[in-house]
């Protein structure tokens, strides 16, 4: 048998190969097909002199893959990305490499795709215009807004976008109204919002949850440490809290862990996103929905597999 050299997709090729809506569908399809996130391989963190390696292996059906990411917090001062790396997609039977992908691009696409895969049903249960607040103005703010628009399509209009930053500055979201964290404007925007997206490096809650509407959807993707969170315990205590996988959330999601430790939340009330996507759990429209994401290896694999299937069809 002839073994061919796997093709490499750089960032532009990755983005050209899959749309935001297709990435959301790939994540949902993996769960609808019966994959159990609890069986996913654990990711591995290894410290390096200048940062760390993050290794994320997974195997689902006929596909296997691993993402190898480096994180160097000092890189931005040198004009380099903080996160860099590669994704290698293999055939699960022969373990032959099939495709190489830009790891950072895949991560960016995956993060927002998972958020919207988990919350799409809650966001389209009404056609009322949607006011959006985004805490943070980095790449994930942009990715989430683009994926949100792809998911909503013509079903629901986005009527306003408010971006909350620590220091007022110009952001790369043309239609955004930019306000300063902690300001009256920020609190008013939170009170009006049907969707709040938190994509920050904050280690403490970024807003007062007393302002959050009873029908709001809140997405938190920024913190991934046991002692860091973007949301306060009071919000998780009154919300329906959706997570990718309960044991994973209890290991990695500070927002969830601290809310449980403080007595505001119980493990038994956590909702796996698979139950929402498969329709076995119906979300209450009169309570907030919180989706807390940690990022899991199977999600990258689902999107990488969708990319190679599309590439094969188009050849």
Structure description:
- The chain has helices spanning 11-17, 20-32, 103-123, 139-152, 184-192, 233-238, 246-252, 254-261, 273-278, 297-314, and strands spanning 7-9, 44-48, 51-60, 63-71, 83-91, 97-102, 130-135, 158-165, 177-180, 195-198, 217-220, 240-243, 271-272, 289-292.
- It is globular.
- Strand 7 (130-135), helix 4 (139-152) and strand 8 form a beta-alpha-beta unit.
- The chain has an eight-stranded parallel β-sheet with strand order 9-8-7-10-11-14-12-13, sandwiched between helices. Strands 1-6-5-4-3-2 form a six-stranded mixed β-sheet.
- The protein is α/β, with parallel strands linked by helices and 315 residues long.
- Helix 2 (20-32) crosses helix 3 (103-123), helix 3 crosses helix 4 and helix 3 (103-123) crosses helix 10.
- It has two domains: 7-107 and 298-314, 2-Layer Sandwich (ornithine cyclodeaminase, domain 1), CATH 3.30.1780.10; 111-295, NAD(P)-binding Rossmann-like Domain (Rossmann fold).
Summarize the structure.
The chain has 315 residues and is of the alpha/beta class. The chain is built from 10 helices and 14 strands.
């Amino acid at each position: 048998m002839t073994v061919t050299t796997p093709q490499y997709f750089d960032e532009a090729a990755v983005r050209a190969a899959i749309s935001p809506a297709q990435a959301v569908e790939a994540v949902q399809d993996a769960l609808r097909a019966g994959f159990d996130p609890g069986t996913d391989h654990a990711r591995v963190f290894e410290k390096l002199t200048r940062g760390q390696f993050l290794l994320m292996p997974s195997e689902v059906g006929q596909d296997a893959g691993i993402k190898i990411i480096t994180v160097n917090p000092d890189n931005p001062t040198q004009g380099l990305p903080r996160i860099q790396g590669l994704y290698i997609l293999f055939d699960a039977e022969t373990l032959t490499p099939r495709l190489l992908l830009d790891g950072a691009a895949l991560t960016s696409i995956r993060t927002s795709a998972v958020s919207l895969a988990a919350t799409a049903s809650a966001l389209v249960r009404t056609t009322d215009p949607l006011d959006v607040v985004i805490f943070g103005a980095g790449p994930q703010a942009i990715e989430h807004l683009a994926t949100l628009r792809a998911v909503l399509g013509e079903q629901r209009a986005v009527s306003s976008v408010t971006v909350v930053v620590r220091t007022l500055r110009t952001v790369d979201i043309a239609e955004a109204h930019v306000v300063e964290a902690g300001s009256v404007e920020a609190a008013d925007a939170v009170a009006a919002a049907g969707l709040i997206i938190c994509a920050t490096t904050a280690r403490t809650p970024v807003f007062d949850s007393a302002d959050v509407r009873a029908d709001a959807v809140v997405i938190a993707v920024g913190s991934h440490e046991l002692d860091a969170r973007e949301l306060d315990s009071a919000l998780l205590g009154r919300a329906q809290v959706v997570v990718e996988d309960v044991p994973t959330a209890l290991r990695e999601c500070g927002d969830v862990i601290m809310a449980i430790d403080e007595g505001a939340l119980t493990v038994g009330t956590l909702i796996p996103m698979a139950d929402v996507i498969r329709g076995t759990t119906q979300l209450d429209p009169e309570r907030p929905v919180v989706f807390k994401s940690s990022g899991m290896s199977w999600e990258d694999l689902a999107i990488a597999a969708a990319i190679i299937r599309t590439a094969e069809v188009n050849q």
